């Protein structure tokens, strides 16, 4: 153990992270791996200058990686799930039956709520957006819904389920990094995530009439062209 690191040195590390990542991403449209490695080197140098032994720093790195490993494994499974659903024709099946079952007047609200359930079950907003989200975009296009509103409903539901799911990689990672119990972390997030979902549903409910009108106009145009 070394001495307590001054706050200005901690701020310096954060400054290196922000500047290096901004310069790489904005200036060169690059990836964040090199800036993160550079920031880690700067942090290790500052810790050594303050008297911390390398064995102590190495053990801290290993413990941090172990805490994040569960989230990494979930991300790997997410990629496999999305690929298997697309190659197995599940997305196409959802689009087919969605066009038959979903009424345009309730499409956006149903889209948001279904994405909530799927994301809560899988624990991943990426999985939801990459599977049923693709299906809903296709269904919305078939019904003549604005793509932006459909995407907003998908994202609103997907992120609600992601934050509330005990299977979520980001939820597990945040609880592990903060040293909190997983379900205590989820209970406290209810006070911020639930009002956000309610506001999103209200906005969707308000603007659904305009979207439904566009949908009926689109359907009328298609029917007219088919008759012609």
Characterise this structure:
This protein has helices spanning 7-28, 33-49, 54-87, 90-101, 107-122, 125-130, 132-143, 147-164, 169-178, 182-227. The chain has two domains: 1-52; 69-227, no CATH class. The relative contact order is 0.09. 85% of the residues lie in helices and 0% in strands. The model is unreliable at 216-228 (pLDDT under 50). The protein has 228 residues and is an all-alpha fold.
Work out the helicity level: over 70%
Number of strands: 0
Structural class: mainly alpha
How many domains make up the coordinates?
A: 2
Order of helices and strands: HHHHHHHHHH
General form: elongated
Secondary structure layout:
Layout: H1 7-28, H2 33-49, H3 54-87, H4 90-101, H5 107-122, H6 125-130, H7 132-143, H8 147-164, H9 169-178, H10 182-227
Helix pairs in contact: 1-2, 3-9, 4-7, 5-7, 5-8, 7-8, 8-10
Quickly describe the structure:
The protein is mainly alpha-helical. The protein is built from 10 helices and no strands.
Comma- or semicolon-separated keywords:
disordered C terminus; 85% helix; 0% strand; mainly alpha; 2 domains; 228 residues
């Amino acid at each position: 153990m070394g001495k307590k690191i001054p706050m200005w040195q901690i701020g310096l590390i954060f400054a290196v992270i922000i500047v290096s990542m901004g310069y790489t991403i904005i200036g060169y449209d690059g990836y964040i791996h090199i800036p993160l490695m550079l920031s880690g080197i700067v942090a290790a140098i500052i810790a050594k200058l303050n008297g911390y032994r390398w064995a102590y720093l190495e053990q801290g790195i290993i413990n941090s990686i172990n805490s994040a490993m569960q989230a990494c494994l979930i991300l790997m499974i997410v990629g496999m799930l999305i690929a298997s659903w697309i190659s197995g024709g599940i997305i196409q099946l959802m689009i087919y039956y969605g066009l038959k079952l979903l009424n345009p007047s309730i499409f956006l609200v149903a889209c948001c709520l279904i994405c909530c359930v799927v994301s809560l079950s899988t624990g991943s907003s990426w999985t939801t957006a990459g599977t049923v989200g693709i299906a809903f975009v296709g269904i919305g296009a078939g019904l003549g819904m604005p793509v932006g509103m459909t995407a907003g409903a998908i994202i609103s539901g997907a992120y609600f389920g992601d934050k509330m799911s005990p299977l979520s990689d980001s939820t597990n990672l945040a609880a592990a990094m903060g040293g909190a119990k997983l379900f205590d972390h989820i209970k406290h997030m209810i006070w911020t995530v639930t009002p956000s979902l309610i506001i999103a549903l209200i906005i969707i409910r308000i603007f659904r009439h305009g979207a439904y009108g566009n949908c009926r106009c689109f359907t009328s145009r298609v029917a007219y062209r088919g008759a012609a």
